[in-house]
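Consider this record:
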Amino acid sequence: MKLKQINQAFKYVNNHKPSRVAIHFMNTNSVQAVIFDLSGTVIDFGSRGPVVAFVELFRRQGVMVTEAEARGPMGSRKWDHIWSALNNPEVTPRWIAAHGHAPTKEDVDRIYPEFTALQLEVLANHCEVLPGIPELCLELKRRNIRYATTTGFESNMMPPVLASAQQSGFDPEIFLTPDLVGGGRPAPWMIYHAAKYMGLYPLHTFVKVGDTPIDIAEAKAAGCWAVSVVDTGNEIGLSQQAFAELPDSDREQLITKATNHFFSLGAHYVIAAATQLPRVIDDINRRLASGERP
């Protein structure tokens, strides 16, 4: 994508926000910016929207997949997500049985437009901003901490998310999508573009908050602090009502399993929900001031 096309796309995705003149400011002793993931982190409790679309897409192709199989590559660029799911050793034989050949990238190209339409349809009912997120954003502003978002959604899937976010008080400086920067997670390009747009560095003063393993990989690739959310996210994957109705012992078991998984992948912090971020920032500031880096 040429630079002119990228600039045009940025303006579209971000509601025609004017371009920012970068004024670089270096503060190495405290958090300067937060990069939020979207589904399961600040919108859509349980990250239900993407998985519903993936399961339905495969059903239309004559291939039944479980929610767990659909969730495996969650957080990656959606084209990559489909390709990864097709190459799941459990899913590939079902595709072969239905289509008579192993999945190819041409298959992904063929079904991707259908997925885009499905995702747009589903997102209309799965893009509500999570409770407490607008208040969290006000607290970040009070602390002079800037914030942006990265996602696996493409820019043409973003209109319902933007509308819901703006109505609910979640207003990042910029929404970044893989097609606008030349690639998605685990590559750090979206975070790099956010840093450049906001005019902030170094990246060790950035905190990345997400709900998937690939969010952790993105943070580590960019040199940021990695914070994983459990209760609201993809790792547990339940709606708010279903999560609340679990027996206490079952809920704790799921939380412990997800927490251990995230720490095993290198998360610096694991929290129940993004609303617990201020106390994490306090601790990161303490560590930065003592010379520690992510």
Observations:
- The CA atoms of residues 253 and 259 lie 10 Å apart.
- The domain at 48-123 is CATH 1.10.150.240 (DNA polymerase; domain 1).
- The two ends are 32 Å apart (CA to CA).
